[in-house]
Amino acid sequence: MRRRIGSGAFATVWLAYDEHLDSPVAIKVLADNWTGDLHIRQRFLEEGRFLRKVESPHVVTVYDAGELADDRPYLVMAYADQGTLADRLELSALEPAQALTVIAQVGQGLTALHDRGVLHRDIKPANVLFRTIENGRGSQVVAMVGDLGLGKAMDMSSRLTMVGGTPTYVAPEQALGEGLDPRADQFSLAALSYYLLAGRQPYDHKSLSAAEDPAPPPPMEIDNPDAEAVVLKALSKDRDDRYEDVASFVGALVDALGGEMDEAPQAWIPPDPELTQAAGRPASTGIAASLPPLPDAVRRRTWPWVVAGVLALVVGGGVGWFLERAATTDRTVDDATGTISVTVPEAWTAQVDPEPWTPADGEQEQPSIAAGVRAGWNTDTEPAEGVFVGLLEGEKLPTRVPQHPACETARKPVFDERNGDRSMTVFFNGCPEVDYTVERVVQVNESQLLWVQVRSDDRATANQVLDAVKVSGMGI
Question: Whole-model pTM above 0.85?
Answer without folding.
Answer: no
